[in-house]
Each structure stands twice: as C-alpha cells, then as structure tokens.
C-alpha cells in the first residue's frame, strides 16, 4: 500500500496517533517525538546473555519452586508455548485483521485515564514511526472486553504459575494482573519493580526483547538514571539503555548488584521474581503476554504490601483465603508478625508510603515500582513508580496498575 504524505497508509492514522500522543505525553508536543534521532542512532551494547534457560516441559512445579521461585532466581523457561494457538495467531497481520476495530490501551493520560487506539491505526503507526520512544500497547483489560477476550484463549497460564492466590479475591477487586503487550523497536519498559511484591511471567510470541534484571537489594538511586540523564524521556526504557546500562556494564559496578541480562526470543518465558528490578527494550516488533501473581512462595512479600497499599482488598482477600486456602494463613501470620520490611531492602519504595485507607490510595498502591503505568488498566508502565501512587504494573509501560 502506498503511504500518504504523512507517512501512514490509512487516511485517519495521523490524526488518531496525534490525539493519542497529545494525551499520553503532552510534554512532547513542543519537543517532538523523534527529535533525538534514536531511530537512526540508538544502539544497544553488545549482548551478554547471562540468564539460565530451562526446559519448561521437563521441569516439575516442585523443582521450579525449589530452584527458582523460593530462592527468587530469574530464569527463562523454554518450550511452554508449543500448544498455544497464539504461536500462530499472534502474528501482526492476523491480529490486525481480527481485532482491526478494537481499541487497545497504548498510554495513559495525566489523570490516569487510558489512551486507546484501534488496532488498525496502531498497526499503521507501528510500521511507520521513527519515534525515539514509541507508544506501546500495554493492555490489562483485553480479557474482560467482549471483543478482545478471545485473546485469552490463545495461551495457557503455565503450570508453574497456576496457583495464583489472588484468584480467590473477587475478580473485580483484584489488581490488574494480565497484559497483552505489543510494540515496535525502541518501545519498552523503564526500570521498575513489579507492584505489591508480586512475581511475573512474560512470554514472548514474536520478536526479541532485551532484558536487564538487577537484584532486589540494589538501591533505587543507582539503578535509575541520574537527574541530569533523564532528559525528555525520564521513564522510558530507551533512556535507561542509553545511560545506566553503561555503568552496569563497567568494572566499577558493585558485584553484589550484578545484573542478569538476556535477549528473550519467541517461545521463551521470562520469570521475574518478586522484588527484582528490571528494564526491557524491544529490538523490533514484539508481541507478548505477561501476568503478575501471588503464590505460596511470595505471599510473605505480597501480604504486607497489600495490607499497606490496598487495605480494603486485603481484608476481603483474607476472608476468602481463610475459607478456601486456610493452610496459607500461617504464611500471612508470620508475615504480619515480622516487622514490615521492604523487599528491596535498601531501595525503599516510596510509593508504598502514601497509604491511607480510602479507596483511591487503595487503588493506587498496587504497584510498586514498575515504572509503568498506573491507573487501573495498564499494567506496567509507571511514570514514576509508585510514588504516583499508582498500583498497576507500571508502564504504559509498566503494567500500570499492578506493578511496583
Ligand atoms: O515486556 C515488557 O516491556 C516488560 C514488562 C514489565 O516488566 C511489566 O509489565 O512489569
Ligand atoms: Fe515488570
């Protein structure tokens, strides 16, 4: 198809994209979206892949718990998508055809509202943009909307993550926990910790993502870009890979905060344990699904954060767990007796400090630090952590609401 003079194939894309951009990143209106020229000049340091990869088909749930989940060690699980319809169906052209007129969340307004775009316009944008840090689909309500919920039938929650204790809470009350994720080169997620002490799994169906994970005890100040490095994209993955990444790779980086890095490819499932800092950049078009969860292995971390950040939810959830999973009450009791500690040790989580028991703070504290999005719908992109009090994962980028 030939491109219009604005560079897009469809006549309305330019206006739809402009409207979304103005709402999601009004501060770029004057500065411009491609001013830094990253589409031409952005390069990543050469890959240093240091993560363990394990065949998910032959690994037992008990072994996963013992070797990775309990000790909180990141790992890539392979071979889990072989029976997923998504393996074939989550192809950009097929998705665009099937969900052409459906809106997907690709950003968040200053007021926390979702910025949405129809798939057909997003597809046009995806193929034809030169933005420094492009809009990124991070949609946490796809499984609840009539016309997009079939996406949730295209994949299966891997057995390792099936026992999500948040299932026992009323699904309308639980924090956002699953995201359909799609974006072009240079889109990604700023450094963050997922919200509420949850762990996450993130399965890539198409493309390649670069990940850097940094241990929970690393202080916030050293893992985040410095004030003078933030520029116009303070909360974007590209900025981190442009600034902090060099330090992480230098011999001066403290050994105790040694990162785990990798290039995740199609069919690979990343396990991000509770409390780990992580940052992601897409090397080209990627299509993924990610869930955050609470299991018997991280409940001791999730519980105190939920009490603090989502007090009403915690009461409701406690009742349900007492009825249906009484055996986990000992974990809750032990976690409640322990002094409230930050799972990040030195990297205190400012977001969780703003607690009050009213609904709004309840809502907003779901996330910890995901850098991603707040609000109720996005998971993971927060603009600035939890300090904004937003609970989702972080992104517009960070799963907005649910991440730390
Ligand atoms: O795929 C990505 O961009 C990473 C997402 C992420 O870390 C999150 O949603 O918390
Ligand atoms: Fe995350």
Can you tell me the overall shape?
Answer: globular
CATH architecture of the domain at 36-293: Sandwich
Kindly provide the radius of gyration, computed on alpha-carbon positions and rounded to a whole number of angstroms. 20 Å
Strand order of the largest sheet: 1-2-11-8-13-6-5
Distance between the termini: 42 Å
Oligomer: single chain
Report the count of strand segments.
Answer: 15
The number of helical segments is 14
What is the fourth-level CATH superfamily of the domain at 36-293? Cupin
Strand content: 15-25%
Briefly, what CATH class of the domain at 36-293?
Mainly Beta
Given as residue ranges, the uncertain stretches (5+ residues, pLDDT < 50) are 343-392, 394-404
Kindly name the structural category: alpha+beta
Q: Which molecules other than protein and nucleic acid are bound? A: 2-oxoglutaric acid, fe (ii) ion
Layout of helices and strands, plus pairs?
Elements: H1 13-24, H2 28-31, H3 38-41, E1 53-55, H4 61-69, E2 75-78, H5 86-89, H6 92-98, E3 103-108, E4 114-118, H7 119-128, E5 137-139, E6 178-183, E7 188-192, E8 199-206, E9 209-214, H8 220-223, H9 237-242, H10 244-249, E10 260-264, E11 269-272, E12 277-282, E13 286-293, H11 299-309, H12 311-324, H13 329-337, H14 359-364, E14 379-381, E15 395-400
Parallel strand pairs: 1-2
Antiparallel strand pairs: 2-11, 3-4, 5-6, 6-13, 7-12, 8-11, 8-13, 9-10, 9-12, 14-15
Helix pairs in contact: 1-7, 11-12, 11-13
Bound molecules: 2-oxoglutaric acid (AKG) and fe (ii) ion (FE2).
GO biological process, one term: phagocytosis
Organism: Caenorhabditis brenneri
Cofactor: Fe(2+)
């Amino acid at each position: 198809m030939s491109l219009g003079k604005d560079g897009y194939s469809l006549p309305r894309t330019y206006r739809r994209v402009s409207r979304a951009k103005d709402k999601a990143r009004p501060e770029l209106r004057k500065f411009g979206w491609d001013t830094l020229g990253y589409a031409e000049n952005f390069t990543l340091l050469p890959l240093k892949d240091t993560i363990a990869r394990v065949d998910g088909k032959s690994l037992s749930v008990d072994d996963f718990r013992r070797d990775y989940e309990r000790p909180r060690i990141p790992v890539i699980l392979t071979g889990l998508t072989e029976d997923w319809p998504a393996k074939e169906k989550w192809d950009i052209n097929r998705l665009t055809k099937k969900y052409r007129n459906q809106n997907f969340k690709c950003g968040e307004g200053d007021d926390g509202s979702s910025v949405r775009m129809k798939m057909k316009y997003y597809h046009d944008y995806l193929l034809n943009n030169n933005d420094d840090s492009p809009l990124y689909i991070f949609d946490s309500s796809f499984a609840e909307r009539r016309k997009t919920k079939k996406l949730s039938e295209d994949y299966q929650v891997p057995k390792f993550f099936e026992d999500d204790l948040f299932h026992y809470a009323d699904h309308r009350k639980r924090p956002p926990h699953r995201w359909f994720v799609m974006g072009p080169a240079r889109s990604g997620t700023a450094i963050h910790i997922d919200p509420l002490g949850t762990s996450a799994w993130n399965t890539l169906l198409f493309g390649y993502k670069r990940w850097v994970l940094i241990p929970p005890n690393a202080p916030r100040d050293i893992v985040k870009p410095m004030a003078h490095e933030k520029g116009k994209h303070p909360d974007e993955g590209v900025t981190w890979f442009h600034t902090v990444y060099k330090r992480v790779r230098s011999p001066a980086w403290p050994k105790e905060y040694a990162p785990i890095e990798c290039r995740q490819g199609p069919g690979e499932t990343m396990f991000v344990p509770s409390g780990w800092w992580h940052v992601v950049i897409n090397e080209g078009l990627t299509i993924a699904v990610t869930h955050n969860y609470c299991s018997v292995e991280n409940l001791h971390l999730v519980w105190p954060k939920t009490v603090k950040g989502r007090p009403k939810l915690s009461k409701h959830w406690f009742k349900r767990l007492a009825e249906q999973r009484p055996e986990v009450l000992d974990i809750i009791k032990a976690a409640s007796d322990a002094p409230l500690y930050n799972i990040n040790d030195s990297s205190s989580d400012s977001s969780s400090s703003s607690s009050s028991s009213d609904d709004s703070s309840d809502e907003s504290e779901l996330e910890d630090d995901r850098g991603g999005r707040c609000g109720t719908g996005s998971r993971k992109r927060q603009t600035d952590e939890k300090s904004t009090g937003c609970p989702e994962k972080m992104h517009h980028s960070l799963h907005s609401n649910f991440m730390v």
